[in-house]
Write a structure and sequence with these properties.
The chain is built from 14 helices and nine strands. With 326 residues, it is α/β, with parallel strands linked by helices. It has one domain: Inosine-uridine Nucleoside N-ribohydrolase, Chain A. It has a nine-stranded mixed beta sheet, with helices on both faces.
Length: 326
């Protein structure tokens, strides 16, 4: 059976690293390239983080492309230190001084356009960060979405609960205009793993301990980058996730990647039009579900609501059993 072709667009923080390793471990997936965008860290740090993950997993043949360093329009929020200032927990000391030479010269958006045009109707695009690169792609080629097989997004929210603002999820809040453009103009099959979906299908901290304490180089890498990160500490002060959903371990980007790898991991979803609020003083960046068709949009999205957490757990465990460097 032919492998599923995937492009990963990422702002590589710790959960992105987990999602990338999940894709690399999946036997039915071929990663054509990884495009980088600002978000969890500067785009320069994101590129270095992706290269580090590929090195750990001995998959350095996969090309890495540098993309957008800021939002489509206007000023961005200050970069989050949720996963440390570098996006991977501020614990990596052996930084690669040659990293820039290992990043492709082609811009990420141009690479997106080229790789999809070369594999028309075959590529699944998995977006794990702010959607700036995707918005620029559709601006350069309005027919780009029609050439995709499908699109998987980790981002947005469904209940008006925010994790960085009162009402908006991080990826959409970092570039609301790009999120708006993508959800309006990408008419390919679109699947959204929202913030609340991930939180409502969280895993236990006992599972997290099992995950990172496997005796493999990949697991040791994950244990290291989560070791000093408050987002991976059950002893840290309560955050918005714990307040709304109770204490749990959530590797956010892994939910979108798991759905791309095996759609049976999504047990229930809602198919409806969605739109991103741009004007609200409090609600800017919030995703709104139009289940009564008041917006009269011609494109819907499949918004995930229930996950097979047993399958997800198995995929996470497997993702840290990759053949890796000692």
């Amino acid at each position: 059976m032919a492998k599923k072709l995937v492009i990963i667009d990422t702002d590589c923080g710790i959960d992105d690293a987990q999602a990338i390793m999940m894709a690399l471990a999946a036997p039915g997936i071929k990663v054509l390239g990884i495009t980088c965008v600002f978000g969890n860290a500067t785009v320069e740090n994101v590129c270095q983080n992706v290269l580090k993950v590929l090195s750990v997993c001995e998959r350095t043949e996969i090309p890495v492309f540098r993309g957008s360093a800021g939002p489509l329009v206007g000023a961005s929020y200050s970069l989050s230190d949720h996963f440390g200032s570098d996006g991977l927990g501020d614990v990596i000391v052996d930084k690669d001084p040659q990293w820039e030479q290992k990043v492709q010269g082609e811009h990420a958006v141009k690479a997106m356009l080229r790789l999809v045009s070369e594999n028309k109707d075959q590529v699944s695009l998995v977006a794990l960060g702010p959607l700036t690169n995707l918005a620029l792609a559709v601006r350069l080629d309005p027919l780009y979405p029609q050439k995709l097989k499908d699109l998987y997004i980790m981002g947005g929210n469904t209940e008006g609960k925010g994790n960085v603002t009162l009402c908006a999820e991080f990826n959409f809040a970092m570039d609301p205009e790009s999120a708006y453009v993508v959800l309006e103009e990408f008419h390919c099959p679109t699947h959204i793993a929202s913030w609340e979906f991930a939180c409502r299908n969280g895993l236990t901290w006992d599972f997290f301990d099992e995950l990172i304490n496997q005796d493999t180089p990949a697991a040791r890498f994950m244990k290291n980058i989560t070791s000093k990160c408050s987002a991976y500490s059950q002893d840290a002060l309560k955050n918005k996730r714990d307040l709304y959903f109770g204490p749990c371990f959530v590797s956010y980007d892994a939910y979108a990647m798991a759905a791309c790898i095996d759609n049976s991991v999504v047990m229930e979803s809602v198919n409806c039009a969605v739109r991103v609020e741009l004007q609200g003083l409090i609600g800017r960046g919030m995703m709104v579900l139009d289940r009564t068709n008041e917006l009269k949009k011609t494109n819907n999205a499949s918004v995930m609501t229930k996950c097979d957490v047993v399958k997800l757990s198995q995929m996470l465990i497997q993702s840290l059993r990759l053949p890796c460097k000692k």
